[in-house]
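2 proteins. here.
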Amino acid sequence: MLKLEIVTPEKKVFDAEVEEVVVPTASGEAGILSNHAPLISSLKPGILSYFGKNISEKLAVSGGFVEVNNNKVSVMIQDAATASEIDVEKESAMREVLEKELSSSGANIEANEKLIEQIEFTKAKIALAMSK
């Protein structure tokens, strides 16, 4: 079993034992099972999944970090949402606004990276909500 803890700056999203966690790392999806090698990785916006005996859940997550050590998985992210918390129309409208802002933002690389991350998070939320 793995001890999974998912936190944002505002709250603890999840804290319990699970059998498997799949996280969207910067280099692709990573599956984590018991006795996984120690790992620290950045996370990109996407869908995080976790599974246990009587639990199977998916969350749309923003960027952040994951640390795996001694069967403990710590996920530190800016924001997370379950499918039931997502308003697809609102997220679609937000994505359009962000994409327009990106297309007119010019060459400010730092601002563009932040906008791209926000767009990817809205896309993840829409995909999660549409999959339920």
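next one coming up
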Amino acid sequence: MRKLIKKDLLDKVVQEYSKFHGAEAQVQVLKHEEGELGEGVITARFTGPYCFSCAPEEYYADFKVLLEELTGLRLKVGMIKQDDKGASVDFKYAET
């Protein structure tokens, strides 16, 4: 299992994301842990008016791209749990 991403690097990803999407979407990292299959899992909570757009998945994809660019990891979007205030999204990575 690859070591988990350092908190300060995750904070930097959130800050960069906020620069571009802060008016429409806010993101907060809820959990960062080892998943059931030994992969790293980052769970992020997205809130804001983006929820009412026709393509909310694009906001998750943009966060994934920033995570990949700043960490050098390859990630995939896992489970998405939507509710009336936003969504919680799992981003998974494994050692290659």
